[in-house]
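INFO batch 0412 | record 1 of 1 | parsing
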Amino acid sequence: MAKENYNVIGVMSGTSLDGIDLAHIIFHRLENCWQYQIKETKAVPYTEDWVSRLKRAVDFSQEELEKLNKEYTLLLGNIISDFIKANQLENLDGVCSHGHTILHQPQNGFTLQIGNLPEIAKLTNQKIICDFRVQDVEYGGQGAPLVPIGDRFLFPEYDFCLNLGGFSNISFEQDGKRIAFDISPVNTVLNFYAGLLGHEYDNKGMIARSGSISEPLLQELNSIDFYTKAYPKSLGYEFVKTTVLPMMEKHDISITDKLRTFVEHVAIQTSLALPKKTGTILATGGGAYNEFLLERMAFHLPEITFKVPDGKTVEYKEALIFALLGILKLRNEVNVLASVTGAKHDHSSGKIFLP
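INFO prediction complete | emitting tokens
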């Protein structure tokens, strides 16, 4: 009989490059329902050197990528070990780690998350469950988004689950199936422009709030092909680098106006992505703290109630859900939904490495 209680760590590094999130989580399975308690957490920021390398890695050669992967696996292993030691964690069932996405090209049958080399198990002296995306791409899927199965199991009371991270993604039930897809870039772009003004991010959206919308730029952003594509669909940093930023840089307007325009763009695309415009949305990810962004979404979706949960769930939701994906892999249960990724069938994805 399968275990009903799990003691695990979830580890996530997102495309916004703000660092590595670690969460110690206790899961209980009660009458087919999963419940969780997020215990100790830590966000470990990247050094400037690591941010620079991870940004540039999209253009690396095969040899450079292999070197980066080894060094990032070492970094991740040390950070996980320090977290375990600092919190005196014992009897862990596993460490469930996403790694960091460098290349995401499902249309070419390829996705790469670094930090998922077998050595990580020996570095941490723990059972590691990781590399959740590759198998899905091999099965003809997008390899993303993977969070929706966690939304289904952990947050069933909400009509929609919206994550506002480096990119936004949405998930919801429709005709008995979980549907999910990436909507648009969010913090990958907002943080880039905030950075040009000397800020790590636009706190509460206050800089964007002070700007004006550029209608020509807004129209051009809203006409990007990706938005008219049917799901399943997903985005990677390449999209920001090759499509969004060049488009925004063509417009000779202030950075403040670019931020204001992009916030409006995100709000409009979010409203267009919803199949119905009533109900409740659970909003998580760093963008859930962007009060101005949520205001603009609420403006375009007046009959939707936005709910921002407790701080730990907002900030560590992806680490939480990858922890659950790891447990489902250990149980040999489905953790990736074909209705979401477009794969040939539902499957149990991920690799398990033993120390």
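INFO post-check: The mean pLDDT is 95.
INFO record closed
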